[in-house]
């Protein structure tokens, strides 16, 4: 282990962050300039990873008050790029999900909203562990470019009303640097650190309205219901502190979202929903999120009016057309969407069947997600390669009746450890004699904009 | 920032320490094997500094229960050397102080106890920041060798009844590795981490009895009285959990200990006390610590009997002779002790005088310690060079009466920033119209051996 810096500048930074660790541990408030200095010193290499790791771990234990949280968020954005959405013109919305297993909602909701003539700019990430990522799913589509510079995004949004691009580190350099460290130091699961990370990027995007989808349940980033609620409330308030009008929903992640888990499999499900198939769990959630977005653009819209608009956008084919137009606008090959059989697929499909009759009580989203990882539909380390054709199709949901020999799920695979994946899938299903109440799709809606 | 390891072994270690961080933060107990694995992985380079820093910061926030604390202490010692004090023969004691400004008590107490025919083996460290270190003080003496291997120590103890050597990293490799990291990550001030660090080395020494001197007050490692008491109780219990018979005292560090602060200056004060000068603050503390050590060797000894032995050891010159015999046994030049003018000195002596009459209410030990640091009697970084001749002589103590122009302290210096040191010394003294009650020298004695 080497010591932190030798120059005067670095020894000042070293003393500052150590005092900050001691103060935070002792329960003293950190000043805004103090928090800014810690992040800035780390981003510019004046404090090493081990000092920042101690700081993040201490914050994860002790929390941040409202003022400290806003200061950290501001520090994450400092020195970064900001989008100039005024170049798009009109109202532009942003959407974020805390992610989960089979969460392809953005890919459905964004074209629906765009088809209702409300522009959306969305930055997405990659998956890690049991949860998938929107960028990975979209990379199933040949030719699609997701690494657009801001100047390339604006004309796409002007032309097709939407864009989805991969997260740029340039927007919130402080978040980018600290996230990489949190990811390997057990400091991801912290409400203030999650909130600052997410909202810093939203501040840099600077949309006219933001809709947050916070998941709760065993497959969520924050499984506990009360904690997930607190995360949602914290983010709504924090966004408001930056003048970002924000609505949100607490949605269910106690079982996988819809049937498809895996990259091209999920793109196929997205296309099915955009063509009108009301996939259970997916459609209801999309309708609520689209409603919140449409009301963000037009606060006078009633729930019924918003839902009618979204339903019409799907029924008329406008949302589907919008999705394909967007894919083309970013260089994607729309023929593979018109003929989904051209998307990456798998050579093997293995059914997992029920060994007893009864009602499905549990479909463990983490086990399903990890089964997908073991056939390379997901990854355990950032650098692991993906198989875009593999994954899981979940045939039964909580509350469904099954008989012996009926299919619970299918494992789609090319390589990886199909044996382990099969075991995980088998363990994921719990079948009971009593019929359980299925969990709600939407647990709570935060529908008044916090400011 | 690089990721933690790429091999399978390292990714297992990485996952283990991250789970441990998450579990500890969530309030779940860590298992003994889990704690052992974390320390072992770090010592063997399977987890990087930033992961260990997050772990230490989390432990500093959440604490450790009695079982976890014993496991951490055990893990610190694992794979290290252990002393074989049976090669010395008879009862061998150990002593430890949490340190402070002007704390030269070990150098007086150890020869007193040795002169009473009770052997003592003591490992000491260097100073950092406002507090000095015994090794630095002893290095004022030309020729004295402190880096003795265990095999070299045993004959010294057999011959002169005592040894003081510099701390060996080989005794508690886990403590050594984590201490270096704590030192730069704001995680030093944690009761369980301090207790495990200190007691692990005592376990490796394996003496027949241990006396702990825990300081309390503004100049102490743990200034707060209640926290320092808890540290003392925690260490006594932890030592007992390893079968180490332990007594201790909570002693005052709300003002500097004695007059001398600085390396050769303190050696001169040690010689004066060993020759019978009852330096205020120093002599009373030495008497109590010697009593606890003598009673550790002979539990039947009453306080009065123990004190009489210690007083006689000094009055007879036996303790002084023992100190000089020990210095010679480890290669030191005893002539410089017989003629202290030969010890390193300073070219300049600057008196700091009272600018008003009154009673001394405060002598801030941190300011006095930092004044000494600025004339190079101490150091702010491990690699900074020391001036063994410089330092501070504190002329007045809390409760003393002073008149305008009387000397409060003297700054002894050769180079460094004498201006800054003078300002700090001036600020260190607070003179009041009312006569304050001087603080007790000994706050509490833990005189029954905890086992």
What does this structure look like?
Two copies of one chain form a homodimer. In chain A, strands 3-2-1-4-5-13 form a six-stranded mixed β-sheet, sandwiched between helices. In chain A, helix 1 packs parallel to helix 3 (49-62) and helix 2 packs parallel to helix 4 (66-77). The radius of gyration of chain A is 22 Å and the shape is globular. Helix content of chain A is 45%, strand content 16%. Chain A is of the alpha/beta class and 451 residues long. Chain A has helices spanning 8-25, 32-43, 49-62, 66-77, 105-115, 134-138, 150-160, 173-182, 191-205, 225-241, 263-274, 282-297, 303-315, 318-329, 335-338, 365-374, 418-428; strands spanning 92-97, 119-124, 162-166, 209-216, 246-252, 260-261, 348-353, 358-363, 391-394, 401-402, 407-413, 429-432, 442-450. Mean pLDDT of chain A is 94; it is low at 1-7.
- Largest interface, counted with CB-CB under 8 A? A-B, 36 and 36 residues
Shape of chain A: globular
CA gyration radius of chain A, whole angstroms:
22 Å
Task: Estimate what percentage of residues of chain A fall within beta strands.
Answer: 15-25%
Contiguous uncertain segments of 5+ residues of chain A: 1-7
Structural class of chain A: alpha/beta
N to C succession of SSEs of chain A? HHHHEHEHHEHHEHEEHHHHHEEHEEEHEE
Helix content of chain A: 40-55%
Q: For this entry, what is the oligomeric state of its chains?
A: homodimer
